[in-house]
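Archive entry: two folds, one per protein. Generate the first.
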Amino acid sequence: MSGRNRNGTWAVGHGPALGRGIRNKHVKEIYEDANAHWNEIEPTSGKRKGLIALELTFREKPEEYLRWQRSLSPRNYEHSVIEPEPDEVEDMLQVLRQPEVLQVLRQLLRQPELLQVLRQQMIEHAPMLEPVQ
């Protein structure tokens, strides 16, 4: 017997497959390891490694930073903009008040050409967010 079912695919328990759920377990472990590395504190600066990577990318490769930001944005703003709850707004403001976030925002404000690129990307992908003249 070849170990294949009538459809020609590998039957359960035969073929090169790992065991049931093994792939999902490995993917979960990879995400957990990546998240742990991202959140690990770098001893000399006291910042998370993920934040350091973002700052470095922002300074040295702003186009990649913007591409990454855009990849996180919803494709269709009309269906994704939701009115936040008051406690969610306060949580967002607390994040924005963090010194490292403020530092990145200040750097962004010092680079008008980068702001222009960001503004253009927002206009292209979310026309309804275009500023009123």
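Generate the second and append.
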Amino acid sequence: MATLIGYSPTRHQNEPVLLDVGTDHRAGFGGKPGFLSSRAPLVRKLARCMGVSVVTTVVSLTTLVAATAGLGMAAWVANVLATSVATVPSYHLNRRWTWGRRGESDLWREVAPFWALAFAGLVLSTVAVALTAGWLEGMHLRSGVLATGALLAAQLSAFGLLWVVQFVLLDRVLFAEG
């Protein structure tokens, strides 16, 4: 079975889609919708949202390093700046590319809640890192690979948890269809 990239008249203008040649990609066993085809819009949104997260993580980390190492800012100030800078492309890429929203943004229905979620992640990750640092201090592990790994795990876990919550809220509330 070959897979081709084609264009579907039912999708957004000129958006490529993968087509299975020689099969009805809409049907599963017994003519019922197939698992993947019924989940395709969700899978596409998840993949795009993850791609946006990769881009914004690079923006955030680059800003954080430049602000702390290059400009000598305090780490917490640089972290707030990095989150602020990365939230701008995150909002626009998610709104347009992930959820296909066009036109003007609604300040109170879309922009403000999106920024609130971004800064909830900042607060949650800061609290998780602070708690982990306190625990490490109590264990007399102030530095080293284990301490650094624990701090990174705390931060990534906090942002990972928020990413799942944010995806659901963006999909079901902020950028919901209809």
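Annotation attached to the second fold: The chain has a mean pLDDT of 80. The CA atoms of residues 106 and 112 lie 9 Å apart.
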